[in-house]
Amino acid sequence: MADVGLERLVLLVNFAKAGAPPLVERIKAWGKERGIEVTVHGSLEEGELEAGPGTVALTLGGDGTFLRAAMRFGREEVPLLGINLGSLGFLTQVGEEEALQALEKLRRGEFALEERMLLEARLGQRSFLALNEVFISRPSLGELAELELFSGEEFVAFYPGDGLIIATPTGSTAYSLAAGGPIVDPRLEMIIVTPIAPHRLGLRTVIFPPEARLRVVAREPAALFIDGDRAGELASGDQLLVGRSASRIKVVMVNPAPGFFSLLARKLDWGSHPERR
Fold it and tell me: Which position among 3, 63, 162, 185 bears the catalytic label?
């Protein structure tokens, strides 16, 4: 059981999803009947959104919408509840048909908060939060990324190839997994570094402790992606600093959380037994 003293719902909506507009109207009506302020946003511009005590952010869309909300609200540690209008729904586990029941549980305090670690990446004066991963990529098709990785002051490796993924345990089942990285229980804390198509056979995933301070030096121009969104460019010689953020994401769980491996089996068809399907 938890209690956020619900006063305000901030809806972050992917209006490209067919079910989004009617669901928004139902949620607005639900909030009006109960004296709960509901604000609706179709973008995540910094100046548009207000957070404070009693605020819960509600995402309507897929995992991409949830990730962008995590980036936006990570520093304020506003609780996030994801309503899945997408196809996969690995982070957004409440379905469209369950949305109003989930909100009632939220209002009554019948939920738990599950905390997840975030990464913070710094490029010059700019700072970014990532729930899944920081990805340093070759700038365009046909070019090569040449990256040096340091942990503290210790040189780790030189990575020529398509790029480097620096992931959280939450992100271990996203892009990192597709690139050959390990499956990691999201309750753990660590930093996972996986190369993309490295031009050296011996380069494999490296696991760092959560307190590691990583530094990536671009020896050729590269592109920076944060949780799938292009966030900037690295010129030759630029340095990207990546480490665990002091902030944490608080994920609202209104239903008993499925076991991690049950979720993998259901969403990714991983390790499922024929007799248990």
Answer: 63
